[in-house]
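Sanity check

After download, print the first record. It should look like this:
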Amino acid sequence: MKTMQCDFVQTKHLKMLNNDFVSHGKMYYQQSNKLRWEYTSPYSYTFILNNDKVLLKNKQRNDLIDIKQNKLFREIVRIMMSSVVGNCLADDKNYKVSIATIGNEWVATLLPQRKDMKQMFQKLVLHFHAKKSVVNTVELYDKNGEKTIIELKNIRINETIHPHMFVIQ
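Expected structure tokens:
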């Protein structure tokens, strides 16, 4: 996969709230290390990865982060990128992986093995469309039992993405 673009719906289930928090947006990925994760509703927020730089921008400000200098962002980027392209399935150093077939999906459950990752996540569950071999849902369970579900929709693979989508300024 050289590129991937899609819409997403992110649902955050918080123990303290009765209602789920739902946001919408768009995701763009380009091999090998470019990613744009853009929330469009109910707020506007953009995360752009271009090699070793991350730009976080909202209406009030832009923050530029060098992931070589920031361990937390380096880990976030590694998790995001390995989930998008599926590298995490073969990463037995960082995850204990089990895979099952359920209907027309492969479901991979990843249990973090490193102490720092266990502090962030209890488990990650990736749902792959079996025929297309592409992730269509990601479930993130944090150590407190709260979860975030990200559903990828209108997935397009290997279509041209304009370079301005990954510009960091």
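If your output differs, re-run the checksum step. Summary of this record's structure: Residues 84 and 164 are 20 Å apart (CA to CA).
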